[in-house]
Write a structure and sequence with these properties.
The complex is a heterodimer of chains A (413) and B (170). Chain A folds into three domains: 163 residues, no CATH class; 163 residues, no CATH class; 76 residues, no CATH class. Chain A contains 15 helices and three strands. Chain A is globular. Chain B has one domain. Helices cover 58% and strands 2% of the residues of chain B. Chain B is globular and about 40 Å long. The N terminus of chain B is likely disordered. Chains A and B meet through helix 3, strand 2, helix 6, helix 7 and helix 9 of A and strand 1, helix 1, helix 4, helix 5 and helix 6 of B.
């Protein structure tokens, strides 16, 4: 055992050393170093578990602890790489300030945000317990789109995951989902009875039946979370969220690999329904632009997947209401149609807008200029060469975000 | 668009402060807390067996897990049925059955088992367990903690491990 303990100590020391190396790099913002300090604290705590006296511990118990330590290393290593790459000045640093401000309103006033490009096509967030507890939001955006400022609304979805956790929404929706699943199986008992080892549907409400509803329950909650996050993005960024979602994810995936998400087509349907309720314009042909992916699940897994889909669908109204409540209470949306119109006008004239109050107005105006004005700059703007309109638009969005950040800092000081 | 690693399943209030720490299968902290508690319990057991002083031993993880298990029962009229999701109930039942080799058949039995375990954890954390006959009981609690840690880690993988990977990645 002493060999395993020694090796675990060595691996943990290696992580701590790596963190110390990363802390010495230059970052454009202070957030990454603050996050590294928190991770270091977490690993120092694990390292302390392997102090004097640990050799006396029973073999199974210590092996288990070593396994957990190794898993923590496996879990945290990607985020260390992510933070290391956040020192890359190729990233659109202009986005950081406005998104960080939104994050602080949504999560907590001293939240830290690391938002930088990553080598993964799908945007994602890391939710590490030691970090989220302390208001750290880490968002990865696809490297190949790192200069595409029009995709900034997608950060709203990733912010949603952190809000979901903060607001304890798993607990809120868990019992409702369980109830819906039990009701549905009970209703279709003739379809289920041969597949479940139960004599009566009443058993679904006790321990003996719980193992049969574990998978659909888990999937439906995960689907509910993804749907809620979409609604957060939609409520903050309105139609610009739908445009960026469609840009990145159409025409869809070939195969549905997981039931942790509703299919893209279903998500689009949820978006369109919610947008209609909220009076947000839905892009023409939005739902139809997503293909239905092939679902190769069969047997009980397929039945469970369908049950999870149905359960999530039944939760949609409540999810939207919860998202609306968060956005309203935390004042996350600064949407103002007149400001959107002003942004659009300024973009047409080829100048950054001053006096903006929210990143969402900038992005909504930018998408309108992109799609509705076809990036047609003022005729007097001879400096824009043919074929370079989108590039110029992108630079103008980033410049407008930068101006917004400067103005906000001046206002704060 | 996705989420990496685990989400905490309800450790935070909307104010951002941790209040009631209930045990939940998908709590990302659970595997390491249970592993730590097992180690600390093992050191308590060893000290009792060798008639050593318990005063210097760390018991923070034991206390934390004791609180999490105690909060499972709460004061709700419906007991565990009202408070625990299927995943958590299955996790606790499996860990308990493996550690004790006793099958649990209902939520009521699970509730009883968790009450006893919670009480033993509290006793171990306050280090008021000098009697030799408690060693066997504490060994069961330690084994439960190890199983809880293992199964919670596997549930975490089940819940968050399903992620599309590039077709060419091996």
């Amino acid at each position: 055992m002493s060999l395993l303990i020694g090796q675990t100590r060595s691996k943990l020391d290696g992580v701590i050393r790596t963190i110390d190396d990363l802390r010495s790099l230059d970052y454009p913002f202070p957030d990454p170093v603050a996050v590294l300090n928190l991770i270091r604290e977490a690993f120092a705590k694990i390292r302390a578990d392997f102090g004097d006296g640990v050799e006396k511990v029973d073999e199974t118990t210590i092996k288990n602890l070593c396994k957990r330590a190794q898993e923590e290393i496996q879990n945290y290593l990607p985020i260390l790489g992510f933070i290391e790459r956040s020192s890359d000045l190729e990233a659109p640093v202009e986005m950081h300030g406005p998104v960080a401000r939104l994050t602080r309103k949504a999560i907590q006033t001293d939240a830290n945000l690391v938002i930088f490009p990553e080598w993964d096509y799908s945007p994602f967030t890391f939710l590490f317990p030691e970090l989220t507890k302390r208001g750290v939001v880490v968002v990865g955006m696809p490297r190949s789109e790192s200069h595409n400022a029009l995709l900034a609304p997608l950060s709203g979805h990733e912010l949603g995951h952190n809000v979901w956790q903060r607001e304890r929404l798993t607990e809120k929706f868990s019992s409702k989902a369980q109830e819906l699943i039990v009701d549905q199986i009970t209703k279709d008992w003739s379809k289920w009875k041969d597949d479940l080892g139960l004599s009566a549907p009443e058993q679904l409400s006790d321990l003996v039946g719980y193992r049969y509803i574990e998978a659909p329950h888990l999937w439906s909650i995960r689907q509910a979370e993804e749907t809620f996050c979409d609604f957060i993005g939609l409520l903050i960024f309105r139609d610009s969220y739908l445009h960026s979602f469609r840009y990145l994810l159409t025409p869809g995936e070939s195969v549905r690999l997981t039931f942790n998400y509703p299919t893209l087509k279903t998500r689009a349907r949820f978006h369109a329904g919610a947008a209609k309720t909220l009076g947000i314009p839905v892009p023409s042909g939005y739902e139809g632009s997503f293909d239905e992916s092939v679902d190769d699940a069969d047997g009980l897994r397929k039945q469970y997947g369908e049950l999870a889909d149905l359960t999530c669908q039944k939760l949609v109204d409540d999810l939207l209401a919860s998202a609306q409540q968060v956005v309203s209470v935390r004042n996350l949306s600064a949407f103002r149609p007149e400001e959107v119109a002003r942004v659009r006008k300024c973009l047409k004239m080829g100048v950054p807008t001053t006096g903006t109050t929210g990143i969402e107005n900038i992005l909504i105006g930018a998408w309108q200029f992109f799609l509705e004005d076809n990036v047609e700059f003022d005729a007097n703007l001879a400096a824009v060469k043919a074929g370079e309109g989108v590039l110029v638009l992108n630079e103008l969005i980033l410049k407008t975000l930068e101006v917004n950040e400067i103005e906000e800092r001046l206002r704060a000081s | 668009m996705g989420m990496r690693f685990a989400q905490s399943t309800g450790m935070e209030q909307s104010t951002g402060h941790r209040s009631t720490a209930e045990l939940r299968a998908l709590d990302p902290d659970l595997p390491i807390i249970a592993a730590r508690a097992a180690m600390q319990l093992d050191l308590v057991i060893g000290s009792i067996q060798h008639n050593e002083q318990l005063g210097q031993l760390r018991t923070d993880a034991i206390k934390q897990l004791a609180t999490m298990i105690s909060n499972l029962n709460g004061n709700a009229a419906g007991g565990l049925k009202c408070l625990v999701d299927p995943l958590t109930a299955n996790l606790l039942s499996k860990a308990y059955s493996d550690a004790s080799r006793a099958q649990l058949n209902s939520l009521q039995e699970l509730e009883g088992a968790m009450k006893k375990l919670g009480q033993m954890l509290v006793e171990a954390s306050t280090q008021e367990v000098p009697q030799q006959d408690l060693v066997r009981a504490l060994t069961l609690v330690r084994d439960f903690c190890v199983k809880l840690s293992e199964y919670a880690a596997s549930k975490r993988q089940l819940a968050y491990g399903e992620k599309p990977v590039p077709a060419f990645r091996r």
